[in-house]
């Protein structure tokens, strides 16, 4: 490019005038998103940000409709065109008759993209396998992996992840699931293995367990954002750094609370409104700092929040439902927050009186304590969607809730957020929970079996 260099003297020190193009500036063509350098994730090279597909198939929380599929295909194509190659999904993403829909869509989008372009791209699918109570053996977990391969119609999964730990409620099942990860890796069904929702202690345990069997742990997926930067998250990040494990940050926008689109007087539709109503009133200082930095940088609040996760050394996987969201998320790449901006956001996050509720399936010191369990149960019970879990009868009176399992082998549908869980029960006794005093945590009164009690109470508050 020909440049005309201006003479410089004490009377002309304008740095912009030192070098100017010899043709109109507007004729320059810049890509809308700058190229990004890949980061290592075990044996894989992935983009510094991936796309999460929890909403692809989820009608209950995200309002998915099959009419959205064409736009989702465009989102996928745009992402790959701009060098995003990491897509996170799960075998439980998709609700009701659409169970597994997220994996099916991803597989279809990959095939159609490659047919259109006439060439293969290095696309990394990271899928999670649910620790359902009926997956009790390594073989059953391997079968779950094969089922995901069939849904996506691919030969190998990039990263096979254990969706959550069962250590808190079924420790014997945990070892079988770990052996299942080993088996699917040895059989070549997955290129690498990872975990999701593992706390510091369990993360160290599974890393050592896999290492002894010659299987490297490549990733640990954790709820991580300006709204969920607790001691556990920081310790997990430190452990990941020391072990060479890449940390994947899910919910980097706090289910949308960090986008600036919502307020106590403007809540989203659906179940998220219950959560937003309680948390948003305490977020003014944090959102104010986020908004100020975004305005000064001519970015959006979402882009700043995602970039903060990248600057912390994680790979964020924000969800996308529209072209507009995809474009906005891509704008989080190609630049970095300054150290002063990071410090300001860290301070605002630490001083915030409200935090994102920790995922109930996340193993941690808090949830291993009685206090943490009671808090989780209370929060779960507080959300009225629990009434929709039962195929049969439900009764609520004076602070107590009884779920009466009236049919043998009845199927209870838990459709909160990311899971549609079919729990087959051989029990007909009621599960009862009662509050000692109004406003106090809910306590177990009767428990018939760990799987029913667990799935009733450990509902996904956020993901």
TrEMBL record:
GO terms for cellular component: cytoplasm. The keyword Oxidoreductase applies. Residues 48-346 form the NADP-dependent oxidoreductase domain. Keywords: NADP, Oxidoreductase. GO terms for molecular function: oxidoreductase activity. The keyword Hydrolase does not apply. It holds the Pfam family Aldo_ket_red. This is NADP-dependent oxidoreductase domain-containing protein. It comes from Phaseolus coccineus.
């Amino acid at each position: 490019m020909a440049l005309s260099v201006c003479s410089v003297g004490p009377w002309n020190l304008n740095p912009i005038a030192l070098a100017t193009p010899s043709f109109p500036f507007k004729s320059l063509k810049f890509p809308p998103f700058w190229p990004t350098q890949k980061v290592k994730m075990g044996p894989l090279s992935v983009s510094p940000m991936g796309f999460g597909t929890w909403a692809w198939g989820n009608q209950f929380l995200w309002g998915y409709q099959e009419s959205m599929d064409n736009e989702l295909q465009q989102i996928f194509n745009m992402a790959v065109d701009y060098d995003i190659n990491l897509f996170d999904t799960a075998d439980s993403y998709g609700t009701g008759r659409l169970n597994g829909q997220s994996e099916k869509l991803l597989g279809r989008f990959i095939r159609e993209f490659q047919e259109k372009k006439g060439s293969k791209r290095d696309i990394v699918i990271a899928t999670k396998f649910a620790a359902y109570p009926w997956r009790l053996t390594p073989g059953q977990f391997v079968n779950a992996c094969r089922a995901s391969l069939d849904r996506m119609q691919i030969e190998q999964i990039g990263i096979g992840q254990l969706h959550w730990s069962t250590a808190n409620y079924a420790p014997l099942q945990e070892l079988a699931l770990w052996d299942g990860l080993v088996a699917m890796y040895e059989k070549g069904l997955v290129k690498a293995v990872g975990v999701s929702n593992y706390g510091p202690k369990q993360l160290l345990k599974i890393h050592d367990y896999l290492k002894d069997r010659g299987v490297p742990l490549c990733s640990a997926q954790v709820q991580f954002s300006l709204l969920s930067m607790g001691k556990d998250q920081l310790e997990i990040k430190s452990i990941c750094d020391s072990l060479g494990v890449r940390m994947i940050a899910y919910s980097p926008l706090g289910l949308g609370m960090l986008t600036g689109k919502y307020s106590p007087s403007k809540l989203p539709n659906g179940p998220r409104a219950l959560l937003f109503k309680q948390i948003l009133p305490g977020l003014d200082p944090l959102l104010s700092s986020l908004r100020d930095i975004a305005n000064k940088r001519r970015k959006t609040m979402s882009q700043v929040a995602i970039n903060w996760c990248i600057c912390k050394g994680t790979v964020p996987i924000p969800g996308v439902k529209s072209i507009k969201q995809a474009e906005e998320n891509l704008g989080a790449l190609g630049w970095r927050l300054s150290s002063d901006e990071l410090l300001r956001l860290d301070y605002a996050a630490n001083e915030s009186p409200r935090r994102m509720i920790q995922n109930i399936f996340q193993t941690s010191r808090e949830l291993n304590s009685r206090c943490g369990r009671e808090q989780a149960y209370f929060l779960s019970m507080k959300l009225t969607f629990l009434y929709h879990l039962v195929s049969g009868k439900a009764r609520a009176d004076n602070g107590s809730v009884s779920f009466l399992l009236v049919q043998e082998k009845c199927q209870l549908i838990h459709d909160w957020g990311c899971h549609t869980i079919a729990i087959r029960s051989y029990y007909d006794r009621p599960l009862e929970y009662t509050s000692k005093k109004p406003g106090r945590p809910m306590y177990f009164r009767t428990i018939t079996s760990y799987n029913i009690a667990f799935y009733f109470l450990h509902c996904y508050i956020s993901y």
